[in-house]
Amino acid sequence: MELIVDLHIHSRYSRATSKDSNLEGLYRWGKIKGINIIGTGDFTHPAWFAEIQDKLEPAEPGLFKLRQDLAIAIDKTLPASIRKNLIRFALTVEISNIYSKNEKVRKLHNLVIMPSVKAVSQFNSALERIGNLKADGRPILGLDSKQLLTLTLDTDPSALFVPAHIWTPWFSMFGSKSGFNSIDEAFEELAPEIKAIETGLSSDPFMNWRIAELQKVTIISNSDAHSPQKLGREATILQSQVDYHDIINGIKTNDRRIVGTIEFFPQEGKYHYDGHRACNIRFSPKQTKNHQGLCPVCHQSLTVGVDNRVNELANLAEDYQPKRHKVVEYIIPLIEILAEMQEKTTAAKAVQTAYQKVILDLGNEFTILRKMPIIEIKDAGYEALAKAIVRMRQKEVHVEPGYDGVFGTIKLFTSNEERKKQLTEQIGLGWET
Ligand SMILES: [Zn+2]
Ligand SMILES: [Zn+2]
């Protein structure tokens, strides 16, 4: 069956996360969004790992489900349109590896996915000797990424190790500030064990395919959600069985089980362009070059974004596209579409209520954004939303790229007249969350 998979998330034990980042919250939002396999995140944190063992129970091989009493209580509060969506959890963590290699400080984030509680316990005991796992759900370890890879595969050969958001400047494998220039440089003779990479919000598969060595690995996408509402900002689509091993083997071999990815428009990511947030400077790679990489306001070097860094490492031209490639779908989160239509922020009560109403009437978010025939959306009374979704699916968007930690903006409508407000009039009551 088609599975929507999001393996990179954080619990409330990670820094700068929402207090609702718990298993119940992930279950609830997984159903609302239409995600099937959700990473637990943070399994190295002792309190979170205890909670995982208390609130999840074994389901299909290598996968877990929310304890029945908890699931029933949540299902009762959800509209019938989404109650039946299948939700399973996989055991995952992101680790921040900070170390020095070839006389440079390296900071890489890596995802580790494990098939069993036993494997996680064993892995955690090994890591406990290296660093403090209690301080942060995403622990910082002074361990070479290559050693972490070795430890992962030694613990369980069916584990998966994935360099995370590989282009972000400060903490990633190819980051301009602290990364490497190739998988080989980072992992040496173990480079062939890197079977997959994560695009991150600021890059898409087409950008990654310009790097010859990345054509040999599977490209996956995840949300890196710090609150359950952000689940599925990006995700991976598989055609596989509901079974850890089938999913992970699909990822490791990049065979037909990998259908493709669901992507943020990469310009919307926080590090797409170059710039200085404090100096209000946003530059394209070309502008950066014209200024010799320096900020015209403070004269310090600019934070080089993902677009620039991809150009630096690319072996292939900007317009290169592989002849055959996996599906790449671009989405804008439904709440952002509704906020734009109502000219309000995503936090506005009216926008939140509209979101609930749409889910209640039409079903989960991914079905609405990706699959639902436009006529059905219209027939349910959502004319303006139907128009917005057509534009999103056809990639007719207006973009201001993100830079130096500032999210970019994506607009579907250009003029105020176009911003139909009838949606506000259709709003009745949502359901209680
Ligand atoms: Zn990270
Ligand atoms: Zn500056």
Automatic annotation (TrEMBL):
InterPro entries: Pol/histidinol_Pase-like. SUPFAM superfamilies: PHP domain-like. Coiled coil: none annotated. This is DNA helicase UvrD.
